[in-house]
């Protein structure tokens, strides 16, 4: 889920008759829940779609360090600081893990990073929102990682083996983050009036961005069908969003906070919470680069990369010297 | 062996804990901005270890102080003049090279002192050292490798690392100064006098700098005032301003 609006690299689903022998065999494997592995034959569009999705997911983990890093230096206790450092370290680790999974499809990390820096690849729009008070850090763990988990638990069943296995591992850590995030915001919601005010502000600001993480409504999600047929995607945007809302609303109520959306109401008939449609104009604005932090986030990442060039060059030069000396000695 | 002077022991523990607290904070400032993803992970990991060690040192310091305070109280509610970290740890990150050079110069000191603290007459001190030394063994290996890699890398990386060493080396001497607190700790067998650690430290640093093709500045001046609290750099106040902000703005809250 840190991947949204992934354009499936194809215009429509082929019928069985239209498929080649190879494509039919491929689809049979998928239909029988047999994982696709790096050396297996796969349609080019399947490969391209997966690279986009895993790449965007990896970028999200990396860029996601920034809004949390914004509070590491201001964490209010040693324990909170340690928890946040451990979380951010996990996120960077997930990024590494996902870039490696994308490499199994023949796309290098450097190339994916270059595309990100040139603005040709995206990361989750949620990280284009600012973290403005300490409760935001709790809310990010609870709501953002929480939303990611809903999606990623489903993705454990995704058809591409390395991606699916990455999800299994990542989900374990994300669940931990979500619990720690909830614990942090509990302290705020049950704390002093000022702390509670921060908690309410965090939920109010981050709720809609969090539920937009699942992407546009199914009716407007033009790219989903092929991805569903290939089991790159396992559940629809709306199904996942509903699941997240259903599990999260009681948690907000437990905190004693006001619901961030007056449209949230239990619907007995559906057995689900109703909710207001998020402002999709805002969603597309953020995707287009007009979110509150888009420019700064990318600028930070590009600067980190450019300013680190001499470090990467230096370490490479040293490694080459060492290798040459070793050969000379042999 | 002399009985342990509790006031001196408190000062010693603050010196240990403030070093790791302040450096851990500095390293954590890198989050998301390092030259390559693996370094983001490594820097966060190093900061995390240092903060973990801080919890132990300052936790024990608070106990010895006996005023019912916690490690958090000591970290977040003292002003700059009560901090006892060496100046080296509070210096700004500079570029990645300066950060890693500072890390190595400190890691090397930690690896030497912690090895001695394993035999401390104070069992809490020796237990903390036993935990920390495992982490520091990894830190010093990594920071030394990075200093060597960048020192012996390209022309640019070499000159940046030499500049980092030239800037930081005058802050090395403070780690080996000795005063009444150190004399009391040595007499009680809690910690050897820092002056006795210098030879081992110099041997390690010289070896790494030789491999890094870097020249240790001759006759470097020794800036001091951190571990006594007499005169910190201007940088510490700014660091504490961010670090302590929430606790200061919303006193008495639980987090």
UniProtKB/TrEMBL annotation, chain A:
Species classification: Bacteria, Pseudomonadati, Pseudomonadota, Alphaproteobacteria, Rhodobacterales
EC number(s) from the headed UniProt entry: 1.14.13.149
Enzyme class: oxidoreductase
A molecular function GO annotation: phenylacetyl-CoA 1,2-epoxidase activity
UniProt-listed Pfam families: PaaA_PaaC
Organism of this sequence: Shimia litoralis
GO cellular component assignments: cytosol
Name listed for the protein in its UniProt record: 1,2-phenylacetyl-CoA epoxidase subunit A
Keyword set, alphabetical order: Oxidoreductase
One biological process term in Gene Ontology: phenylacetate catabolic process
Residues spanning the membrane: none
Domain of life: Bacteria
SUPFAM superfamilies, A to Z: Ferritin-like
UniProtKB/TrEMBL annotation, chain B:
A GO cellular-component term linked to this record: cytosol
Top-level division of the source organism's lineage: Bacteria
GO biological process, one term: phenylacetate catabolic process
TM segment ranges: none
Alphabetized InterPro entries for the sequence: Aromatic_CoA_ox/epox (IPR052703), Ferritin-like (IPR012347), Ferritin-like_SF (IPR009078), PaaA_PaaC (IPR007814), PaaC (IPR011882)
PANTHER family for this protein: 1,2-PHENYLACETYL-COA EPOXIDASE, SUBUNIT C, PHENYLACETIC ACID DEGRADATION PROTEIN PAA
Annotated protein name in UniProt: Phenylacetate-CoA oxygenase subunit PaaI
Organism of this sequence: Shimia litoralis
Gene: paaI
């Amino acid at each position: 889920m840190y991947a949204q609006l992934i354009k499936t690299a194809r215009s429509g689903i082929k019928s069985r008759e239209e498929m080649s022998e190879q494509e039919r065999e491929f689809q049979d494997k998928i239909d029988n829940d047999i994982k696709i592995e790096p050396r297996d034959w796969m349609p080019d569009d399947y490969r391209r779609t997966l690279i986009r999705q895993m790449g965007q997911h990896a970028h999200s983990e990396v860029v996601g360090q920034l809004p949390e890093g914004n509070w590491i230096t201001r964490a209010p206790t040693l324990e909170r600081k340690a928890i946040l450092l451990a979380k951010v370290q996990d996120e960077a680790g997930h990024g590494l893990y996902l870039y490696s999974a994308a490499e199994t499809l023949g796309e290098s990390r450097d190339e994916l990073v270059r595309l990100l820096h040139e603005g040709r690849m995206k990361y989750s729009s949620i990280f284009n929102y600012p973290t403005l008070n300490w409760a935001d850090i709790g809310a990010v763990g609870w709501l953002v990682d929480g939303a990611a988990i809903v999606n990623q638990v489903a993705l454990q069943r995704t058809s591409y083996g390395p991606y699916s296995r990455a999800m299994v591992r990542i989900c374990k850590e994300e669940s931990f983050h979500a619990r720690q995030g909830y614990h942090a915001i509990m302290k705020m919601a049950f704390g002093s009036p000022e702390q509670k005010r921060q908690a309410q502000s965090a939920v109010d600001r981050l709720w809609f961005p969090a539920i937009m993480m699942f992407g546009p409504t199914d009716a407007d999600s033009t790219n989903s069908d092929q991805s569903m047929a290939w089991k790159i995607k396992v559940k629809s945007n709306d199904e996942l969003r509903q699941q997240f809302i259903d599990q999260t609303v009681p948690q907000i109520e437990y905190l004693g906070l006001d619901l961030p959306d007056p449209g949230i109401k239990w619907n007995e008939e559906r057995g689900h919470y109703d909710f207001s449609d998020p402002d999709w104009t805002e969603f597309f604005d953020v995707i287009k680069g007009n979110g509150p932090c888009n420019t700064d986030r990318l600028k930070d990442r590009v600067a980190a990369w450019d300013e680190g060039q001499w470090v990467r060059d230096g370490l490479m030069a040293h490694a080459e010297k060492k290798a040459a000396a070793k050969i000379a000695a042999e | 062996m002399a009985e342990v002077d509790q006031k001196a022991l408190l000062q010693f523990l603050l010196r240990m804990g403030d070093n790791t607290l302040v450096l851990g904070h500095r390293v954590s400032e890198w989050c998301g901005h390092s030259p390559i993803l693996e370094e983001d992970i490594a820097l966060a990991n190093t900061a995390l270890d240092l903060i973990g060690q801080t919890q132990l040192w300052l936790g024990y310091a608070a106990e010895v102080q006996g005023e019912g305070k916690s490690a958090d109280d000591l970290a977040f509610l003292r002003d700059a003049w009560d901090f006892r970290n060496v100046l080296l740890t509070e210096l700004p990150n500079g570029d990645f090279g300066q950060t890693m050079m500072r890390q190595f110069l400190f890691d090397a000191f930690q690896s030497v002192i912690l090895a001695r603290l394993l035999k401390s007459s104070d069992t809490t001190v020796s237990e903390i050292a036993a935990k920390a030394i495992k982490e520091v063994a990894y830190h010093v290996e990594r920071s030394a490798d990075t200093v060597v890699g960048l020192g012996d890398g390209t022309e640019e990386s070499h000159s940046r690392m030499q500049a980092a060493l030239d800037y930081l080396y005058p802050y090395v001497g403070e780690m080996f100064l000795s005063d009444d607190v150190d004399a009391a700790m040595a007499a009680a067998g809690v910690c050897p006098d820092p002056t006795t650690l210098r030879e081992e430290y110099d041997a390690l640093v010289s070896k790494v700098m030789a491999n890094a093709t870097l020249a240790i500045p001759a006759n470097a001046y020794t800036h001091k005032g951190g571990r006594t609290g007499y005169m910190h750099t201007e940088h510490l106040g700014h660091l504490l301003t961010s670090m302590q902000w929430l606790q200061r703005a919303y006193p008495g809250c639980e987090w």
